[in-house]
Structures are given as C-alpha cells and as structure tokens.
Amino acid sequence: MGSQCYTVEDPLYIEVPSSIVLKRHSDNHIALENIGVSEMLNDNSLRNSKRHKFNVYLYQSGSHTSLPYAARSAIEEPPSNRVAYPGRVNKHGMMPVYNSFDDPHLQHYYRNKFNQAQNARRKPVPAVAGGAYRPVGQPPSRPGSVRSDRSVSGSSSGGQEYHVTVKTGDLKGAGTNARVFITLHGTRGKMTKRRLHNDNNNVFPRSSELIFTVYGPDIGDLVKADIEVLYVSVKQAEFFQHDGIGEQQSWYLEQVSVECNGAHWVFPCNQWLSLQRGDGKLDRQLVPRGSQVKKVGREVPLKKLYTITTVTGDIRGAGTDANVFITVFGKKGRTPRIQLTNSGTDTFERGQSDVFKIRTNSLDPIQKIRIEHDNSGFGPGWHLDKVEISSEESKYYFHCNNWLADDVGDKQIVRDIAASTDPTGATANVKYIVTVITGDKLGAGTDADVYLQIFGDLGETVEKRLDNARNNFERGKTDTFPLEVPNLGTIKRIVVRHDNSGPSPDWFCKSISVGDGKDNYEFPCNRWLAEGEGDGKTQLELWAGQAAEEGPTGEGVNYLITTFTCNERGAGTDANVHITLFSEDDTSSGKLMLKRDVMNAFKRGREDVFEVTAVSLAPIERIVIGHDDTGAAPGWKLHKVTVECPSAGMCQTFICDKWLARDEGDGLIERELSELLSSRRQQAKQSTYEIWIWTSDIRAAGTDSKVFVQLYGETGQSDIIPLDNKSNNFERGSLDKFTVSAPEAGSLYKIRVWHDDTHPSSGWHLDKVQVHEPGSGNKALFRCARWLDRGEEDNETVRELPAVSGGLYPTPLPVVQYKVSVTTGKRHGAGTDADVYLCLAGERGDTGDRWLRKSLTGINKFERGDVNEFTIEAVSLGELRKIRVGHNNEGASPGWFCESVSVSGPEVQGGGTLTFLVNRWLADDEDDGALIREVFADSEAALLRTTLYKINIKTGDERNAGTDADVYLCLYGEKGNTGKISLKEAIHTRNKFERGRTDMFDLEREDLGTLERLNIGHNGEGVNSGWYLDTVTVEVGGSVVIFPCDQWLSKNEDDGKIERDLFPVEDSTKYLSKIPYQIEITTSDISSAGTNADVFVQLYGADGKSEVVNLNNKSDNFERGETDTFKIECRDVGEVHKLRVGHNGKGSQSGWHLQNIVLYKALQKMTPRASRWDKDSVSKYYFTCNRWLARSEDDGEIVRELVACDENGEPIHTAELISYKVSVHTSDVTGAGSDADVFITLYGENGDSGERALRKSDNVNKFERDQVDVFTLSVVDLGELTKVKIRHDDSGSNSAWHCSHVEVEGGGEEGVVRV
Asked: Is the dihedral of CA 617, 620, 622, 628 positive or negative?
C-alpha cells in the first residue's frame, strides 16, 4: 500500500472521495467526506486568502484507488483540530472511484496548467475515460485518451450526460433566484450533489421550463444514445434542495424530468421549497412517477466487445497528430462516431499498429467502416494502410492504402471502406465514375469548390470534393471524377453543392451522372446553384430519373433548423456551420450548410433559424453538427438545436451545451447529438410544395412587384404564400422555382395568384403555374396566359386558375363572373371614403379579399343611400354560404354603415340573386368597433351564425418590450381560419402593446372548431417596432386556449423574425358553460322614448338564471323608434321563462319606453371539442313590454320583468306577471330610521326577483322609526316564497337602520319573513 502526492492550486472545484486528505501548507488539516472543495472553501479562514496550495494524498490498495474506512489507521494522523466524519463504504467495501480528469469543472484548470508545457504536436487535455487517477505532472498525451486495457465507450468525454428539465409552477411568487442543487440516486449508487447553472442569471422564473446538462457516473445499467430503453430502478430518485431563506427566494417546484441516452424519468413535486410557505422545507425527496422508468424504445440489446486495430502506412509523413474517429456499420445498425485514443501512447505513428477496444451492440455482419480525422494538430495528414475489427466470433479487414489528408491525393480526410474477410489486401470497394456537365450559358462556369454526396439503397458516401487538379466546371464542359467507395446498391439520389468561394462562384449545372460500369444513373439538373440566380440556393438534392422540366419527383421536405448559441463570452462563431440529420433507420440528409442570411448569425446568445430541404426523415434520431474552423473567431459554444419538420408536425430538441472549438473543452469542432425526448412537441402538419411559375415571353411580361399564391384542394386551403427566393424573379420568358411549406390541401382544384401592384413596373403576364407535392406525388397544372395589370384587359391584378391536369376534378371547373351590388345605409354619416373589400365564400372555397375599386354605377363609391355594382371573377364557388366585407379604415371619413350585399350569377340560385343583410356599422367609433363583418345567407339570428373570440395579448415585462408597429393575427382551427386581422382597436386601452400590459380584442367570425394554431406578427414600422410577446389567450364558446410565445418579434432581436406561429399548450383548454344569445330591443316610437342610461338584461329559465349582462357598444343605442341588436354570451338557462330588463337611471334623459324584445337562442348542445351549439337550430322568444322604465313615469320603476311568449303572444311557461306587496317595518328603538337607499330581493321556488330598489312608498319620508313602508313589485310568479334579502347602500347623513321585519303578500300565497 502506498500513496502519491499531487499538488493543486485553487480556484478549484473538485469532488473527492472520503479517503483523500487535503493538507494545507499552513498545517491546517481538513478531512472531506464526499463533498467538494468548493464547499470547503466556504470556510472563512480559507476564503479570506487570495490563493491556497494543497497536497492531495491518494492511497491505493491493489488495483483500486479507494480505501476502506477500516484501513485508515495506516494513514498519517492529522492534527487534533481535524474535523472527522464517519466513513462510508459501498456494497463491495470500497469507496467509489473518482477521476479528476473526468470532472468538467476542471477542464479550464488543466488546459491552463498543461498547455504551456506541451509541444506543438500535443492536443488539448480532455476528460479521461476509465476513472483512473493520474499525477498532475503526467497529463494524458491525447484528448479523451483511455488506458489500453480499457474499452472506448463511444463518447469522447468521460461520464454520462443527464439532461435535467426543471419546471417551475405557475403560482404567484413561484420563481426563485436561490442556488439550486440536485442529487441523483440509482441502482449502482448516486451522483454527488450538483448545482444547476443556467444562462438566465441563475434565476428560475415563474411558469418556466429550464434545461440543464449534468455529467456524472453511470448510476445504473444506462444505455448509449442510440438505444431507446433503460432498465433502471431508481431507489431514491432525486434530492432537490436550494439555499434560499428569504421570502423572495421561495420556490414552487412543479416537476423535474431527467433523460439519459434515451431513457426518461418524471419526478412530480408540486410543493414549495421555502421557509415561509408550505411546510417550511428547503429540500424534497422525489420519486419517479409510477415508481418506474418510462420506457421509450425497444429492449436494450446485449453489448459485445470488438477489438479495432489500425495500421499506419510505412512511408514518409504517414503518421498523424489529428483526432481520429471511426463509425462501424453493420446489418444490425451502427455505432456512434467514436474517437480512437489510448493513454500514454503516441498513436498513429509511421508503420505503427494501434489497438483499441469498444463495447457496443452486436453489429454482425459488419458491412463497412467510416474512418476520419478532424485535421487538427501540427501534422494532420495520415496514410492509413488498413483496419482490422475482430470479436470472439468474427474478423473483418478494411483495406485502405490511401491518404486521409487535405493536401495529398484526392484531398479527402474521410473514407468509407467496405468490409472484407480476405486478409491479403484486396479492396472490397466499388469504383464509380461521376460525370458532371456544366451548362452552356453566360457565366455558367464556377470557381467555387464543388461537393457531392451519393445515396443508394445500401448506404451513402461521405461528402466528396470533386477536384481532379484541372480547371473544372467551365462553361459547356464535361468533367469526370473517379470514386471508390463501398457498394451503394441502386443509387436513388445525390446532393450537390458548392461553397460559394472564388471570384465567380455562380454555377449552372446541366446534369450529373453516376456509373459503376454496369449501371448508369442520370440526374438532370438544368438549374443555377447561385445566390443571385434561380431560387438562390447553392445546394440541391437531385433524384435519379427526374425530368428537369417536369418538376422534382423525389421526396424532399422542408426543415426549420434553429441553433441556440450560449450566452457567455466568446461563445459565438465566425465559421461556416453545417448539420446532418439522421432518421431512426439511419437514413441521412447529407451535409446541409446553414447559410448565413443575417450578419450576426451564430453570435453570443442568439437564436438563428435556417430553412433547409432534405429527404423525409422525421422523427429524427440524431444530428451531427459542426463547423469548418474558419474565420477570425471560429470557436463556438452551442446550447441546443431544434429541428422542426412541418410535414411531420413535429419539433425536436437536441441538447449540446459544449464547445465546438480547437482550443476549448475536448478540442472537437463537430458533435453528434441525440434528441431530448421530453421536449418533443407536436404541431400542425404541413406539406412541402414545389411551385414552378412560367412568365410569358412577350413584351413587358415581367413584374417587379411581390407575388403571392394560395392553394385550394380537397381537404382545405393553404395560407397566403409569398413567392420570394431572393433572386430576380418573374422576368420575361423565365421559369422560377420555389419550395414552400403549407397546410396539406389534398388534390388541388384551383389556385389564386396575384401581386401587390407596388412598383412602377408591376404589370405581369403569367403563362402557367405547376404545383407539385412530393409527399403525395400530386402534380397539378394551371394555365393562365393573361395579364395581371391595372392597365391591361379588365384591370385586375388577381387571377383564379382551375387545375387543367392533375387536379381533383377530371374536368376543369368553370371561371364565373359574379355581379355584386353593395348598398350603403341611409343613416347619418353612413358613407365611407375608405377602400372596401369583399370575399365571397361557397361550398368550394372562397374568392379571397377582393378590393372593390371599379364601380359600374359611379365614380364616388359607397355614399349614403347609394348602390354600387362590381364584378368579381373567380373559379366556380358552388352554392354561396357567406360573405366577408370590410375596409382599410383610411380616408377623411372611413366609418361606414353597410345595409346589404347582393350577389347574382349563373350559379346563384338558378341564375337569381342572393341578398346578405348586414345592417351594421363598420367603424372603429360605432357599434362594437369592428371593421370587418361576416354575414350568412340565412339572415335570421345572423349574429348566432358567428362565434365571438375574446383575444387577450400580453406583452412581456422586458426592457423595450412594447411596440409601436401595427400588429395582426390569424386564428386557425379544424374548420378554417379567420384570415389576417389587423388589431387596431383594443378594448379599454388606447396605447396598445405596452410593456407588461394585456390588451383585449373581440373578434366575430364563423366557428373555427378546435383551435390549432395562431399566426401573429407586425409590419415592422414605427419608432420602436420591436416587440416581446409573452402569451396570447383566446376565450371562445366558454373555453380558454393559451398560446405561449415568450419571444421577440423584432428585426434586431433573437432570430430577426417579426411573425411567428404559436401553438396551444397541452391541456390548456378549460370548458365553461356559456352560450351565445342574440337580443333585438325595439324602443317605442313616442316622444322622449329613448334613453342615455346603461341598459342591462338577465335571463331566467328551466335550468336557472344568467348573470346580469350590460348591453352597450360604441353606437348611440336605444333611440326613439330604433331596433338595436346585441350578441351576448352567458350561461345556458335552458328553456327561457322570463327576462328582466332595466337601466341604471343615470344620464340627462334616462327615462325609456321599451316596446318589445326578441331573443334568439341556439339549441342543440354539441361535443366540447367541436362546435358547442348547433347554430342552424334556433329558438325564438318574444317579450312584450310597452311600458316606461322611468322614475318620473308610470309606476316609477326602472326594472321590468317580462314573460317569455311565442310568436302569437302566448306565454311559453305557466308563470304569470303578478304584483307583490312588500311591507317593511322599521323598529321602535332610538336611531332606528335610515336615510339610505334600501334594496330587496325576493326568492321563491321558481327563482328570484332580482335586486329591486324600494323607492316609491306610501310615506314621503321612508324608513323612519316605528314606521311601516309599503311597496309594490311587479314580478313573474315566484311560487312559494322562501326568503328575502334586504340591504342599504350606506348613503345619507344617518344611514344606520334597525329593521324589525318584512311582510310580503302576493301570488295567492302569503308569507312573512322577519330579518
């Protein structure tokens, strides 16, 4: 038994076993038991000194580096002031092994300590696998190196990665700024306490989910990243604690979830960690939900030991100093990318054989290997002779005899080598010839470096640079390149790109072919790979046999890649970043370059979004991301990557939290990342469409305006799609190609295409459009051959085109001319100067919003009392269902009262006319302030045909979070969408979207069904246009749906987006019992009948009563002889029996003579997740009044109860309107009388009277001592009385009142209630 002495210097965070004694030079001795030096340094005697030096004694017994407690007598006894702790032993009687080189907290220390002493050929010192101690003076010779008798685990860093997701509750004061620690326990032991650090100033905000990466030992039978199941029984799952003692540091923890290599645990908590709240505890012991591990994949296969032997060539300069990696491919799967290292050995030297051991899943039979290096070090070039891989049952040979160097031979540093069982040296690779033809166009040749990757049904190549030392890729030339790789089988597709380097990088590729001597595969292209030409792409995916002029025939889909750069010093990169996506069956996207579209991409703290196109892969199992180490500051610390696949409706998260840098961490610049399964999000599915547009080859046919398209198909319609690929599009005689994502529409039957007419040269002659959906194979053609020009033909800039081939219908639908008549009302100020638009909707889609510019009946449109006629051309809509009419609220007098819209045409009611009654204001200062109205063909109870959406938009509480820009949104549901809505008028607020404030908007639209997503954005204009949006909440039909955002919509923040799609959070919908009613109130046509008071109603029915509902809007309501219509939402009262109506008696002319009320109620209740009420089945109730509600008229009452009747005036219910005599007795005691206003409510078996003011008594001075005041209340029969409620308003000089009792007579029953 012996000891070794190691000298270390703080600042230092190190975790040590209890058998280690740290001896301070000042002869102070401290014994540590499973705690870190960071805790020890909290001792004041140590903290006050700037620097300390310790001797670390490690005692070894046999081959172990730990010591049983019983053997401590042999250790040098410390002074008497040593703090002793009882020893701990594991089940084997030995302390757990600790390796300081595995500790991520020490990486910075080791790098600074050792790099100065290393020569140029040494690499950065990483964590060491295997858990062995090493003297400080003897650093490992290579990053990630391991002892030769240990096996490589498949990861370049020591220990396991645990991804910890912490969810803070949504309660007041739930967040904390205290330090939070976690301890994990498993079947093989525990991970020592870890602090959870984050980039959010170590704050855990209310209702947040924060993700942390914790490194530690294997505490159970953990699996690698590519295995999807874990058999771990966690006996003491979590020990969570923090050091907050103040009220502001209290923390409400909802749950913790932990993932490791595909296994997922969920630990519910739902308790406070606080001295002031809950049970006062600062720590919680949590167990996983269901006390078991969630299985996320198949059973873990048994691991197998393989021995890998590399033989470096025996020629000058054959050895390498680079980091070498290998990936082994077999019939049963593949290994991850494994770094080959051996501790204490200078590997990969000339003529040398190096042996490595890996333990992985059984791969037999092995098919090929991919061996590569990262081109780092002083001499990275490597001549590899061969590789041998053996196990107990088999042995494979991989003959190379070639350079892996960027300056020798074919300049490749990655090679795929086929497996062979022949040890003699015969290669098993197949020789392919790649032929590239450059087009014969002006500027077709390129000076850039061109790269190619080939995909077959038996595998794919790595990306190869095509360079044969000649002047390749010149205009009209043919270049050939030999390629020797393992057999690819039937070749399916290729990915070709260039790096946009050189003085003339643009390239027009005509075609590429790949042959093996037997079969030849053709890939027609005929496209530019240029940022300033065609679709602006420099990377293309081509499929074998596709016809270049017919559109793509492959399976390419769009992906949105978002990278999150860490928010710490130096985290950003100037290098070129690339990513490769892999599916569960190991299909690869090929290397995809993340092209910088903004200047500050990949900078510190940024989120950057990139749109790429690749083969369909979702769900993605893993990604490889890296950079080319170029630029002034190439080092990059990546937090995470999200990959969104709209066609699969899925967003996946891949955590990194590591450096990709030569001079940081383990020195790697490329990493393989696995998905964090707990963060996977489902969202609305979208399809990928390839849209090809041909501009006619006639004079002035091209346009400089912005072009848009909308698709209509069997299953719905797309959003409005802007067509822009950042090149000079829509030129005379040109073909422009676009790849877009949109909701799946099924087989198409029409499209609408238009431009915004915003440029002097906006006129456009469109020849035809082709739309191809690769996922389904649908390909439809739409012919136009017409002008979209306000100075040509019919002056229209929008065209609807039916599918002439490949569409839903075998025969193209007809194009119809609809005649539209718009009638403006005769009310004062009814006319408008604004621009008006109209949308017609039928059984086959809609026309979209069409501006009504050219009237057939006059120049000055939409004047008071006028009728204006217009023509709208559209593909046949079938039976018309509704219209949407609105205006842009511009001009001197934009407010407009629209009376009706009539539509006629050959398909409208057999060639007749259909009239849509509007009769409402479209004005921000009238009615409900709406500028858009939807009206249905069935005009009775028209308001019940629409649904009220109450939208609450919360601006974040961040600096400069508010915006001055114009905000818009669009709601999407299972039945359609609202279209883009400008949010101009908020309820109760004038200055909208200010920091920390919630703005409310009401939106009336046709029922959308279950809400699926919300699109929100702004126009980016104004002094402070940037906006930080917190959440959007939508209340509809008694439900509440929450759309979280928590992101900037700003050109200068985050990813620079000013428009975002939001999706409802899981289980956010809560159903309440509210339904819509339509109320029509007619004021009598007699002198002074109107009122300025605030009017209210309350409904009573078989199932109870509604709340009191105030009837108000921005218009001047309740005028003499007028009928006012309102839509209210309140609880369902069942069959309506009565209605109480009244006003507050305020205003200069509060008296009101009410003629009658008509109430409409939707009938049949539907399922909560669909339309809650059948709006085609309506009950109608009539309430006749013909009385004053005025204190100076009639009986002085300002509240009336009205009995529900049918259209013939017969009561629906047996209850009648009766009078109750109420006698109020004031007590005979001193001061018993009151000057206050008194109110009473009567309750009976049939309901209540509502609160009534007791104003008109037989006595002038009411409620005096020992006085009886008698009142009469007109109320619908309450049945047998049960109680009364009486109160006063505490007004007057002597408001106190002593009431003796109350007597109520009426309804054939007599009762007395004493209060």
From this structure: positive
